[in-house]
């Protein structure tokens, strides 16, 4: 649980079948273009999240704001998922993706509060030493958000589906970005 000036966030495991319809509406929304599922059918979303649920090194969670679904979070072990062979992983590295649900009533600072809640969740595990992200190089909005919570861009990498900006954030960098003395 993470409490911010705009409310309380909680995170629960995703249920691929129960949550598929909701997720489908999120990942096919025009604002989710970087999620690369714009043309996905409901069954495609179910299949993708069933695959993730069955994967030993990849997990999906649903984030709630004040008890209502508000974001999707994925965490993965970059030694086995997404970044295999693209960088030299260190012990304690955790990969992360997040997607904020589309809304007709945006709340100022909401997305930053979401990524902060996601990072709180990841660093709640004492084994997590560093969070790794690989957003599309053209996604300037997420680069700014990542930097706001402590990520440092390292280099561009070529993934099969995109050119990505590999970035890292240690626990100390995250705490410093939040203004917490380290």
TrEMBL record:
<dbReference type="InterPro" id="IPR019432">
    <property type="entry name" value="Acyltransferase_MbtK/IucB-like"/>
</dbReference>
<dbReference type="Pfam" id="PF13523">
    <property type="entry name" value="Acetyltransf_8"/>
</dbReference>
<comment type="pathway">
    <text>Siderophore biosynthesis; mycobactin biosynthesis.</text>
</comment>
<feature type="domain" description="Acyltransferase MbtK/IucB-like conserved">
    <location>
        <begin position="12"/>
        <end position="59"/>
    </location>
</feature>
<protein>
    <recommendedName>
        <fullName>Lysine N-acyltransferase MbtK</fullName>
    </recommendedName>
</protein>
<comment type="function">
    <text>Acyltransferase required for the direct transfer of medium- to long-chain fatty acyl moieties from a carrier protein (MbtL) on to the epsilon-amino group of lysine residue in the mycobactin core.</text>
</comment>
<dbReference type="InterPro" id="IPR016181">
    <property type="entry name" value="Acyl_CoA_acyltransferase"/>
</dbReference>
């Amino acid at each position: 649980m993470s409490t911010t000036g705009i409310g309380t966030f909680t995170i629960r495991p995703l249920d691929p079948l129960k949550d598929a319809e909701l997720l489908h509406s999120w990942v096919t929304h025009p604002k989710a273009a970087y999620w690369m599922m714009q043309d996905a059918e409901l069954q495609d979303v179910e299949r993708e999240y069933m695959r993730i649920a069955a994967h030993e090194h990849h997990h999906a969670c649903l984030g709630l704001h004040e008890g209502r679904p508000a974001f999707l979070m994925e965490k993965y072990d970059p030694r086995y998922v997404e970044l295999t062979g693209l960088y030299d992983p260190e012990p304690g590295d955790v990969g992360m993706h997040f997607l904020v649900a589309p809304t007709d009533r945006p709340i100022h600072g909401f997305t930053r509060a979401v990524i902060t809640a996601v990072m709180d969740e990841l660093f709640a595990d004492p084994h997590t030493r560093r969070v790794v992200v690989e957003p599309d190089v053209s996604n300037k909005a997420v680069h700014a958000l990542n930097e706001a919570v402590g990520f440092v861009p390292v280099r561009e990498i070529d993934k099969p589906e995109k050119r990505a900006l590999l970035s890292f954030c240690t626990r100390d960098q995250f705490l410093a970005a939040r203004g917490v003395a380290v």
